[in-house]
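queue> pop job 88
queue> type: inverse folding (structure -> sequence)
queue> payload:
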């Protein structure tokens, strides 16, 4: 498995499959995808992207940190869940953020993904909340 930096548009097919099924692919073009401090990672297996994650220089007012990044649009192909590919991508991204001297990574995680993030050291903040049309989420963060 190879992890590499990819373009925002390269994340769209997997985002659509996992995060926005049944919606037009244009719905996978997220705000901040093309900001200068944003970056996107993909894990490839046999030249096919099987995991994607996007990282944005974005603050969350409820969290303390001078250089915060947001993780958004992380998706793993359903056939590869539980094989460690998502963990590899996230660890690669965390390493890159540390190189950039970021001190906090946060995300709004779907309820079914909270355990994945907690295993990697993330903590929850506040109460679960509903994102209309998507479902219940929790705010998670990791001090870098």
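queue> result:
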């Amino acid at each position: 498995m190879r992890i590499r930096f990819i373009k925002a548009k390269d994340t769209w097919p997997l985002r659509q499959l996992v995060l926005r099924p049944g919606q037009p692919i244009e719905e996978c073009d997220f705000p901040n995808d093309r900001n200068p401090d944003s970056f996107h990672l993909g894990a490839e297996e046999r030249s096919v992207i099987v995991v994607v994650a996007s990282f944005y220089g974005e603050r969350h007012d409820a969290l303390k940190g001078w250089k915060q990044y947001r993780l958004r649009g992380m998706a793993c192909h359903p056939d590869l869940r539980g094989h460690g590919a998502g963990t590899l991508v996230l660890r690669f991204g965390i390493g890159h953020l540390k190189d950039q001297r970021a001190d906090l990574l946060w995300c709004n995680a779907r309820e079914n993904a909270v355990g994945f993030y907690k295993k990697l050291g993330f903590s929850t903040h506040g109460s679960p909340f509903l994102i209309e049309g998507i479902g219940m989420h929790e705010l998670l963060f990791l001090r870098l």
